[in-house]
Amino acid sequence: MEQIITCINCPVGCRMTVALNDQGEVVSVSGNTCARGEKYARQECTLPLRMITAVIPCENSEIPLSVKTAEPVPKHLISAVMNQLKKVKVAAPVKLGQVILPNVCETGVDIIATRPLS
Amino acid sequence: MNREHVDILIIGAGPAGLAAAIAAREDGIESLLVLEREASPGGILRQCIHNGFGLHRFKEELTGPEYAQRDIDRALELGIPIECGTTVLSVSPDRVVTCVSQARGLRFIEAGAVILAMGCRERPRGALCTPGTRCAGIYSAGTAQRFVNLEGFMPGQKVVILGSGDIGLIMARRMTLQGAKVLACVEIMPFSSGLNRNIVQCLNDYDIPLYLSHTVTNISGRERLESVTVAAVDEHRRPIPGTEMVFECDTLLLSVGLIPENELSEGAGVRISPATSGAVVTDTFETSVPGIFACGNVLHVHDLVDFVSDESFRAGHAAAAFIRSSAAPSAWIDVMDGNGVRGTVPQKIQTNPAQPVQIMFRPSAVFRNASAVISCGKKELLRRKAMIFTPGEMVACTLKPEAFEGLDGSEPIRVAIEEKPQEQR
Lengths: 118, 425
What we know:
heterodimer; A: 118 residues; alpha+beta; CPE0013-like fold; 4-stranded antiparallel β-sheet; 3-stranded antiparallel β-sheet; 2 helices; B: 425 residues; alpha/beta; FAD/NAD(P)-binding domain; Immunoglobulin-like; 7-stranded mixed β-sheet; 5-stranded parallel β-sheet; 8 helices; 20% helix
């Protein structure tokens, strides 16, 4: 099986062809012009990862709290993470970097605040 | 009315204003004031909750609020006064700044130097001449971003995005994650001006179609937007009859370009470049009015906040040097846009600069396997090869002071992109 991946590392945007075997393992990558491209293509075809950022309403603040996953999480969990975030309640004060929701969707990754709220 | 006095007054507490203030204070300027229109500092970064900021400057990927907080913390640590909720009404050519705030009313502040750091604003619907009704539901992408990220409500549920600039792409993902349906992103050019990364992670990840060489040809709705008509365009960007598609939607977001916000600059008599829509500046970011400096997106629209900060640190240092010494350079070299280049900054360089000079410009088209060349007459000052130059990515080249030896200003410096002949590829 083959998959076409557009590289996101730089503006060249190489279109890479990734060959996969029946087990879904990467056999070869072609069309890339640097090593970063190959690494990205392998990751993207096996377990694509994304950072997720969002805002959560804050009980005693006019401004909602902006948050992020502390690390990238598997792409297929994006909507599950967003659904979990809908249920989270926070109240000021919040410190930058404070853990708002630990181990979101059993990923081992925490949701943390990206701004202070007083 | 009494006039206050400060050595350096900075207009805007976004990334540009904060960096300029930090640099000036670090150079020992005690009398310093930052004026900010919004209720808190940070500028547009406050609403840019996505990540990807700071890779150049901090070697890590931060969200907008995190990036802003680093400069806000540093400014507070240095004791820099930032007055929020204060709107500047005018700047005079002799650097008297008129401002107003609820807390302190109308004030006149005399400044030894003024740094313009007001940023830019989005091109509005009126600039596009799109036909149709004047219904509700049409927003610039940045306005929608403010609603969702800072005010916590959604502007609509069925969305079409016109323009594929990065803010539009980011908002396509943002609206989708908040439960809206984004039906299409429509771009009049045959290519997107947004980053590949955003095309992949904001559109492809959510199966949002990108229609290149298409535009919105009609907007319809009585009170609220009900539908938009999208049509393909030919190579002259004219709609092709018979290609129309109608999208039923309640929201149209516009992501069609940014314009430096220079009303105050023009009021002060600052000369504006038609290429950048920002001030014409020297290598020390001084405008055509002595003692008035400009940096960040009010000077020229950047792609990366990292470059805004870098430029603004240098502008802050330059303004501090201006306060200390009144000796102005006597001879200048003009800098001109050559082939394939638009909007070079700075437009004037002193003949014997003491500091390295950074030259920034935007390619006017996509060039592959080409070189950026900076020359003066027959003398080549710098040549840099790249696999690709695109209009979406500003190019920055640094020239050392030695590069200017022997230049007297009789000939201009020319910045150009040279394409390699086909057979040498």
